[in-house]
Specification:
With 152 residues, the protein is an alpha/beta fold. The chain has five helices and six strands. It has a single domain, classed as Rossmann fold. The longest helix is centred in the middle third of the chain and has 16 residues.
């Protein structure tokens, strides 16, 4: 496994590249990315993880803030370059950026979405996924299995 985290340079290899889109709200969202990384650690896959260890919640989320702008641009580049996007909506979060990314990439053919019951906008996610034929699954385990299937 090759792991590329924000804001490292995105250099993809011959492995399947998978962007880990989804809930990150620190202190609220489960760190589901670590579960995916652990479960795929022995596979020939490149994971693009937007969760930034050095993130500072006090940073102003404005285009004038160079660190914030770098993070957003890194995520957009990683989403665009990845071959597969797995998206997880933690039911305890609002995840506005994940909803935005769903809208941006619903037509890409690269998405696999996990939106458990209890997510505050599950109905919207379900309709978008149905309309644009985005595969929806019901658990992190199934997300991992989808990546493993794609690797075959």
């Amino acid at each position: 496994m090759n792991l590329i985290t924000a804001s490292s340079k995105i250099e993809l290899d011959k492995n399947l590249s998978v962007f880990l889109a989804g809930s990150i709200e620190v202190g609220v969202a489960e760190n589901w990315q670590d579960i995916i990384i652990r479960e795929l650690s022995k596979d020939n896959v490149t994971l693009l993880n937007p969760r930034r260890v050095s993130w500072d919640a006090s940073w102003k989320q404005e285009i004038e803030n160079p660190v914030f702008k770098e993070q957003v641009n890194w995520e957009l580049e990683a989403l665009e370059k990845s071959e597969m996007i797995i998206m997880y909506f933690d039911k305890n979060t609002k995840s506005p950026i994940t909803l935005l990314e769903l809208g941006l990439f619903a037509r890409s053919g690269k998405l696999v979405v996990c939106c458990p019951d209890g997510f505050w906008r599950k109905g919207n996610v379900d309709v978008v996924c149905e309309r644009y034929k985005v595969l929806q699954i019901s658990s992190l385990k199934e997300l991992i299995n989808e990546v493993k299937e794609k690797l075959k």
